[in-house]
Amino acid sequence: MITLYPKRLFKFPVGAEYISPDVFAEKSTKEIATLQLWEGNRRRTIGDLFKIKHETGSPSDEVTIRICGDVSKVRKIGAKMSMGNIIVEGDAGMHLGEEMNGGVITVTGNADSWTGSMMKKGTIEIKGNAGDYIGASYRGSTKGMNGGKIVIHGNAGYEVGCFMRKGLINVYRNVGQFAGIHMRNGTIFIQGNSEGRAGAQMINGKIVVCGYIPSILPTFTIDNIRPKVKVNGEKVEGPFYRFIGDLADEGKGKLFVSKNRNPHLNSYEEYLRYSV
Amino acid sequence: MTVVTGVTCPVCGTFCDDIELVVKDNVITDARKACAMGAAKFLNYATHRNLKPLVRKNGELVEASIDEAIGKAAKILADATYPILYGWSNTSCEATRVGLELAEEVGGVIDNTSTVCHGPSILSIQDVGIASCTLGQLRHRADLIFYWASNPWSAHPRHIERYTMFSEGRFQKSTWRGYLSRLRGIVSRKRLQRAANLVLRRDVFAAPEVERRLPYSMFQKKRKMVVVDVRKTRTAEAADYFLQVEPNKDYELLQAFRMLIKDEELDVDKVAGVPVEILEEVADIMVGCELGVLFFGLGLTMSEGKLRNVDAALNLTRDLNQRTKFLIMPMRGHYNVTGVNVVFTWQTGYPYAVDFSHGYPRYNPGETSVIDILCNDEADASLIVASDPVAHFPRMAAQNLVKNPLIAIDPEVTPTTLMADVVFPSTFVGIETEGTAYRMDHVPLPLKKIVEPPKTCLPDQEILQRILHKVRKLRGNLN
Amino acid sequence: MDIAVKDGKIVEKVDERKAEVVDASGMIVMPGGVDIHCHIAGAEVNSGRLLRPEDHVKDVEVKTALTRSGVGYSIPSTFTTGYRYSRMGYTTVMNPSMPPLEARHTHEELDDTPMVDKATYPLLGDWWFVLEHLRDDLIEECAAHVAWMMTATKGYAIKIVNPGGLEAWGFGRNVKNLDDSVPHFNITPREILRGLCKVNKLLNLPHTIHVHTNNLGKPGNYITALETMKCVEDLAEGKRPVIHITHCQFCAFKGSDWQTMSSGAEEIAKYVNHHDHATLDMGQVIFTDTTTMTADGPFQYGLYTLTGNKWVNHDVETETTSGIVPFRYKRKSAVHATQWSIGLELALLIKDPWKIYMTTDHPNGGPFTAYPTIIAWLMSRVARKKTLSRISKRARRKSLLPSIDRELSFYEMAIVTRGGQAKALGLTEKGHLGVGADADVAIYNVNPEQVDPSKKYKTVRKAFKRAAYTIKGGEIVVKDGQIVRSVFGKTFWVDIKTSLPMEVNDDLKRKFREYWTVEYENYPIPDSFLHVPAPISVKAEV
């Protein structure tokens, strides 16, 4: 296990795509210390910014990187990693686990925006809150998250799962507007409330909102009332209103919204009487 | 006394180039054809200006030589670890090109006013694309004009007379006379309403009733204007139809239109406070027009939904092209914000929020945009050109901006120059200095030099060139 | 054989004791590359750049002491474009599409494209003044107005795209064939092509009319390409070409729909082999994710409906249109693979290399950085066979390539990538290494006497990717594929002298406000606007 202690609180953005088990594997402490980083526009090394403790003889062959401290300005931690573990004991910066292809990242504090963007495999678990664009694509691209799992124990921000294609995003608490916008497929499980506009312009996929949502987009149509819904193999108790949309994009996505937490939506039930 | 014709007005995105200025003894005495904003600039630009370079010493701004100011500015930028270079929209493309070179040299972030204005529009264009044109196409061909979340009567005063309703095109006529007669009706109706309110002691400020039916003029074969807004603006009063949308509900309305124009039914009775029957009629008119255009403004980019409001509008336009010819255009604010986006894009690949700190251009609004950088307190120096962020930025951003070394290049005294550590008095582009700028529809036009500037003021381009030269010297990079 | 260079020109000889000697033994020496058609600057290209941040992140260029930074795979930023061309040994590039109203934009970007000489072609095929004059059969008036426009926009040649179709697109329509009438203007594409061909001759322009045909990208359009070449056949004089059909691959489709689509290259090659009045460039497709951008608004809209990709449209008042759609060419798509085959078939079946030039219509068929790959395909059957084995079976069965043995020689490649292009453009000082030519030289590290390109195509490809030396205007600017000196090239434009310029000026002044939303005096580009202008004086016969 390799532990990194930030030597100070960072003010400038730190570009840290080399903090990854793939890169650290089979390297000595000295070699790790010389790996390059950016701090603002200055070239630095990991050794410049972090104190490194290398505990040899760990039981498994897997590389584990532990980061202890506030690294909320350190970006791209775990980017493109395909194996191993990263544990951040503190707050993590933007682009955590971007394009990840395997392994596990755990954050005890909060994470920032673009966590797990474009990831393909692996697991990211955030104990605190996360920012916007979780599991999203890059600007201009339709290729968002394509597999793997992101679990957020706190709240998440806007546009969670933007252009998502596969995988699971599980938010224990609330999300901002536009969860699942432009979704191609995959599952977004919101155990708390949504600020609204969930499933906007989605083509396919599944969004489940267990809490309150102020309204449903006019381009969604009510399909059914379901007693339960399956999320990642497990059954979640409803009852849920099931909406299909986004019809403006000829979408066939499914939006499940809790019936009991959203009594203001019961006017939709009259449309069910006419459905065959 | 001379009359200078074909002057381009350096104020708003309408970028009129037919202004005629009367000049006497190096002073502009009259601005013909200019709107109130243009006339205000041409006639009053010299009133609050900086005439000398200033440097802050012991907490006070004192006059300094240009060389001293250049030296101090260059040192601030060369030493900075994450400097920001912001503004640009009120100066020329030529100056912007030097700015980009400087930002690349110092490894900083260069951003322009799109970041607080139509940045969201650009983000959505990058996802959807945009079906647009030059303004002349609309003057010649458009018979259905939407101003959505935009109020040209106040913000782009000559837009309607130059490019849309009151302009004469090859295939479409001006509706000026129709408007005049309607205006008389509107004014007298208002008077009667006010009188009735007084007599009957009605609440004068009650919201107007939503017009249940579209007026007859909407079904006639002539140019028609529809205004969609949260309140009845002056533009809305001149429109053939005013569609009042609930605040922050434009996204739902635009998405609903996308279904209605495909003759699909909605599950709801009302969207954004408007009954669906009315929306269906509007959708019919959209589909039945010869060429429609949707102009949109900050009402979409800065209300809830932001870029996704624009996303929906761009998609609606694109969908409409399956049935008829429909185009869309953002109403750009500053006269050269489009030009600045254009220059940024050809030199760096990206239109705003460009980060050079790793030696090549990187782009991610939300991360490399100036407001976010400032709110996160990540910058340690700034160069502000042709802009006034201390007056306009969110409080937290402005606070973090002024606590670091701040260099300002501006012709006028502004809150930003008052808080700066180095101030350069520059010339007014389009009045005292030549240049190139781009209209809101991407048409490039020349900016003219009309009068001589004061001797102590230099063009932005030259000030930036000198700072760049000094920075290179400090870093030993001269070649 | 030695080549002597002095003051930017190739001369008979120089004093060897005082000269810098470049030892090119064991390497092939060619004139600097000339690209007759590549979209690198202007409104349409820049909108493409803005549209594709996701394409830029794939490919970045870090700032160095000599070079500016940049980005971009299919649509590089301007500095990167110049450097990349130079590293491949190219020294002259032509931007083929310029909306005249936005000419200033094109020239600003060309000025920021280092290392190469350049020029640009204003789009005139749907200009209202052209349509009205040709409709009324006023060829000389048309010529005078075109001359004004060419000078006002600092253009080099008459560009015609989907003649008539762009004006129709103003209201969302298109034209179907050469005899379809353009709505509101009562003129046909045939009349536009013939009219502008006559105008081109009257103006004595160095290049011919440069034509993107009607019906681009439609199965069965090879007939339109043939008709387009036939319709000006009678206007030819002697062996001089009067028309250039650009990116011919895109208009060489046989068949009636995408299922039956196949190659029409054989028919087109047959025609071109028997006629001398037309030149072509390939428009070769590469299997990659690229960006299509042309002035053909309706065609680009069609691509959007086909792919569902993001779509940019920009109609320019009084003049033209444009459209941009990202596009991925897939090996396993029968249609795309057939397109790939068509480009190569055209180049190999047309016998005279002076008639067909190598381009990808960058970035439409693929980025210009793929040129070395195309060179390998043209010079080696084995290289073609290898690619053929990986493409769609249906396309492989239909392809003519397995039956084509021909492999271009180094000499023929030099014509197809520089000599022929320069000649077609009328650039007498480019594309050859004779005395008097501009000293634009490319030296590639492959020995033509020892290396058999047919077998060692990989060596050839590598050599052409990174020039051993690129010499621009007599200065060494690239060494071993690295920029060693940053220079800025010239912008060519034709300065046409007509006999009655004042009359045209007055006519335009009167009508300007009716037609455009800008003032007459703000339209023309002043001579001082270009950083390094290189006007070519031409005396018109009108």
Please describe the structure with a list of short key phrases separated by commas or semicolons.
heterotrimer, A: 276 residues, mainly beta, 13-stranded mixed β-sheet, four-stranded mixed β-sheet, B: 479 residues, alpha/beta, Rossmann fold, Dimethylsulfoxide Reductase, domain 2, nine-stranded mixed β-sheet, five-stranded parallel β-sheet, 19 helices, 22 strands
Assembly of the depicted chains: heterotrimer
**How confident overall, as mean pLDDT of chain A?**
95
Arrangement of strands in the largest sheet of chain A: 5-1-6-8-9-10-11-12-13-14-17-16-15
Rg value of chain C:
22 Å
Average pLDDT confidence of chain C is: 96
Give the amount of beta strand of chain C, in percent.
15-25%
Notes on the structure:
The complex is a heterotrimer of chains A (276), B (479) and C (542). With 276 residues, chain A is mainly β. Chain A has a domain at 113-272. Chain A is built from four helices and 17 strands. Chain A has helices at 21-24, 29-33, 46-49, 269-272, and strands at 2-6, 14-15, 36-39, 42-45, 50-54, 64-68, 74-75, 85-89, 101-107, 121-126, 146-152, 166-171, 187-190, 206-209, 221-231, 234-245, 253-258. In chain A, the strands form two sheets. In chain A, strands 5-1-6-8-9-10-11-12-13-14-17-16-15 form a 13-stranded mixed β-sheet. Chain A has a four-stranded mixed β-sheet with strand order 4-3-2-7. In chain A, β3 (36-39) and β4 form a beta hairpin. The termini of chain A are far apart. Chain B has 479 residues and is of the alpha/beta class. Helix content of chain B is 39%, strand content 20%. Chain B is globular and about 70 Å long. In chain B, β10, α9 and β11 (241-244) form a beta-alpha-beta unit. The model of chain B has no long low-confidence stretch (mean pLDDT 94). Chain B folds into two domains: 49-117 and 336-428 and 450-475, Rossmann fold, CATH 3.40.50; 119-330, Dimethylsulfoxide Reductase, domain 2. By secondary structure, chain C is α/β, with parallel strands linked by helices. Chain C has a single domain (4-37, 74-493), classed as Metal-dependent hydrolases (TIM Barrel). Chain C contains 18 helices and 24 strands. In chain C, β7, α4 and β8 form a beta-alpha-beta unit. In chain C, α5 (128-135) packs antiparallel against α6, α10 packs parallel to α12 (334-349) and α13 (371-379) packs across α14. Chain C is globular, with a radius of gyration of 22 Å. The mean pLDDT of chain C is 96. The interface between B and C is large, with 63 and 61 residues. β8 (131-133) of chain B pairs parallel with β16 of chain C, so a sheet runs across the interface.
